[in-house]
Predict the structure of 3-hydroxybutyrate dehydrogenase.
Amino acid sequence: MAITTDLSGKTAVITGSNSGIGLGIARELAKAGANVVLNSFTDRDEDHALAQEIADVCGVEARYIKADMSKGADCRKLIEEAGVCDILVNNAGIQHVAPIPEFPAEKWDAIIAINLSSAFHTTAAALPLMRKAGWGRVINIASAHGLTASPYKSAYIAAKHGIVGLTKTTALETAEEAITANAICPGYVLTPLVEAQIPDQMKTHKMDRDTVVREVMLARQPSKEFATVEQMGGTAVFLCSDAAAQITGTTISVDGGWTAL
């Protein structure tokens, strides 16, 4: 028998959700009945159109709120403007690759702000709302790089390890309440951004698509398959279910075996 989760009446705020993993999670939560608040730092017609599409397809309330996740005040204002936050998904993130001695200080600061500090600020603003409602779910999107490391990604890896630590602390501070906090740790997920990288990788390595995916992009992912944004969303929905009520303060790897190595 399939496990179903009805999130009707709940509101989910998902940061960095006008594309990729964040949008995939928003859609799956909406399919489960949750009202959703999309977010990014832009304020385009297409951003608001995405929210309208979700509302029309899923029959829920959906809106888009602009907020710059590099600014703590904006992070807190996002939650305040949402007004309700039963489910908080901290997904916003950026990346930069360079050796530590050459890593630009401003890139380090931006990655730590958007990938880590934003989750602190949104969580700080959301927990009082969850406590008032008597129920809540904090879902932080970490990474396989929250559990292991690679060279040249110092800021990203530091931030994602930090997200795992923040998740554990949040769980301990809410352990006796009907609030849980967990981190999803994806490996390589097939997003539009990743898909766009494949032709350049094919050219660089002089390989066909299947070979460059298996041998270059998924070199560390034993399944040799991308995870999907729908799978990320399904994992988030599960963490919101009653079945996951005693799952808190932990990481769930959706990485095709990456961290088993």
Summary: The beta strands are 11-14, 35-40, 62-66, 87-90, 136-141, 179-186, 251-254.
